[in-house]
Amino acid sequence: MAGRNPAAPRPSLVVRLRQWHGSLAPVVLAPLLLTVASGVAYRVLRDWAGWDRDRAHLLMVLHEGEWLRQWFGPHGETVYVVLNGLGLVSMLLSGSAMAFQRLRRQWQKLRQGVAQG
Question: Which element (helix H / strand E) includes 46?
Answer without folding.
Answer: helix 13-47
